[in-house]
Amino acid sequence: MELQQGIFILMGLAMIIAAVLAMHVKDLISSIIAVGVVSLFASILYLLMQAPDVAMTEAAIGAGLSTLVFLYALHKTKDVEEEND
């Protein structure tokens, strides 16, 4: 039981560090990746808490799809900025 609590604390701290990193990094791609890491760690925590359906949803939508949508939007925004120059 204590090992599981230690893992929860470690994962929670990693999520907080990744979230702070996402806010303070100047590079947008690194920030998007950090947000994806937060969602990935959340999905692992859900799996450890015996909620595999929530974990799969968080991994697929939170870590996967949202990260891809943000990267696609960033790519399209950079394309428009390059056309305007």
| Fraction of helical residues | over 70%
How many angstroms separate the termini? Answer: 59 Å
Mean pLDDT: 90
Strand content: under 5%
Principal-axes geometry comes out as: elongated
- The run of helices and strands is HHH
pLDDT < 50 runs, ≥5 residues: none
- The tally of strands reads 0
Number of helices: 3
Radius of gyration from the CA trace?
A: 16 Å
Assembly state (oligomeric): single chain
**Domain count:** 1
Q: Give the biggest beta sheet.
A: none
Structural class by SSE content: mainly alpha
Tags for this model:
85 residues, 91% helix, mainly alpha
Short account of what is shown:
The protein has 85 residues and is an all-alpha fold. It contains 3 helices and no strands.
Q: What does the model show?
A:
The chain has 85 residues and is mostly helical. Helices cover 91% and strands 0% of the residues. The protein is built from three helices and no strands. The chain has helices at 2-24, 28-48, 52-84. Helix 1 packs antiparallel against helix 2 (28-48) and helix 2 (28-48) packs antiparallel against helix 3 (52-84). The model has no long low-confidence stretch (mean pLDDT 90).
